[in-house]
Amino acid sequence: MVAVQGRVVLITGASSGIGRACAELLSARGHIVYGTSRQPGAEAPPGWRLLEMDVTRDDSVQRAVDVVLAREGRIDVVVNNAGYALAGALEDISVEEAHRQLDTNLVGVLRVCKAVLPSMRERSSGLLVHISSLGGVVGLPFQGLYSASKFALEGLTESLRLEVAPFGIQATLVQPGDVRTRLTENRVKAQRSGPGSAYQAPFETALRTIEAEERAGVPPEEVARTVLELMEGGPVRVRYSVGKLAQRAAVLAKWVLPSRTFEQMVMSLYGLSRS
Ligand SMILES: NC(=O)c1ccc[n+]([C@@H]2O[C@H](COP(=O)([O-])OP(=O)(O)OC[C@H]3O[C@@H](n4cnc5c(N)ncnc54)[C@H](OP(=O)(O)O)[C@@H]3O)[C@@H](O)[C@H]2O)c1
Asked: HEC string of the chain?
């Protein structure tokens, strides 16, 4: 049994936003934290370490995991957080853009899991925390590939839980609503979403709502508190939602309302109407 404090934690995408907030909170709490970034820079953050990792590259993922294992001898907790949002109408998204989104948000998580699981199995212990999204429960307009990546992450994690439980390893999902981070500035727009797109006007209207909601979102520290609590609590549930009550209620609404009524609510939120 691993002590509640002093756990070795690996957090992907810790250069900003949710990952950084997790790294700061968990290290302040006494855990041994390794964050990752594609460009870690020379300056070490106080109290924790930033390693280089690109989750789209097998060798880069394995190298960072090996560094932590060599220094600490174990990884107790992984927060699979690295990701970005691709925006655009599905018709406008190129196959390459779709591959990149899935390679980072979904296959990146798989790469990290594959790299850490052998050592976790050896020790019959470990916790994998996957940062999903409310977009992994509700298909959002003009964020179709982002939603697809998070829906898939939900399925991957549900399956993973069943496979690793016999080895004493746990996995869980954290579903934040809108959070104030650099996700908004870092959003990638489909190259064909500009002039010439049949969807340009509704896309721009929806994007204004998406960005305004993100800028009014909860601070990333709120997600970090959820991660800390579940990490230091007992057996983890399948999923935890975090964020504004109205957004968390939307998940419930999806299951209780007639599907067309719920869809209508989502459409009007994003300024869309049926012809
Ligand atoms: N903000 C929200 O409203 C919200 C809501 C729900 C879920 N989420 C999820 O929360 C997670 C963190 O996002 P955030 O909001 O904190 O955004 P952020 O501030 O843009 O942070 C994203 C992090 O991911 C890293 N990253 C991106 N691509 C990467 C790659 N190929 N390899 C390794 N690292 C990569 C970035 O690191 P480098 O650029 O330094 O490599 C950065 O540290 C994402 O999975 C996102 O989908 C966010």
From this structure: CCCCCCCEEEECCCCCHHHHHHHHHHHHCCCEEEEEECCCCCCCCCCCEEEECCCCCHHHHHHHHHHHHHHHCCCCEEEECCCCCEEECHHHCCHHHHHHHHHHHHHHHHHHHHHHHHHHHHHCCEEEEEECCHHHCCCCCCEHHHHHHHHHHHHHHHHHHHHHHHHCEEEEEEEECCECCCHHHHCEECHHHCCCCCCHHHHHHHHHHHHHHHHCCECHHHHHHHHHHHHHCCCCCCEEEECCHHHHHHHHHHHHCCHHHHHHHHHHHCCCCCC
What share of the chain in percent tops pLDDT 70?
Answer: 98
Nearest atom (ligand 1) to Cα of 20 = 43
Q: Return the ligand 1 atom nearest residue 53 CA.
A: 33
The tens digit of pLDDT for each residue in 30-52 reads 999 999 999 998 777 899 999 99
Q: Is 222 in the pocket of ligand 1 (CB under 6 A)?
A: no
Q: Give domain status of residue 259, yes or no.
A: no
Residue 88 lies in a domain: yes
Question: What domain range is 36 assigned to?
Answer: 8-245
pLDDT tens digits, 154-200: 999 999 999 999 999 999 999 999 999 999 999 999 999 999 999 99
Band of pLDDT at residue 3, cut at 50, 70 and 90: low
User: In total, how many domains does the chain have?
Assistant: 1
Q: What is the CATH number of the domain that holds 105?
A: 3.40.50.720
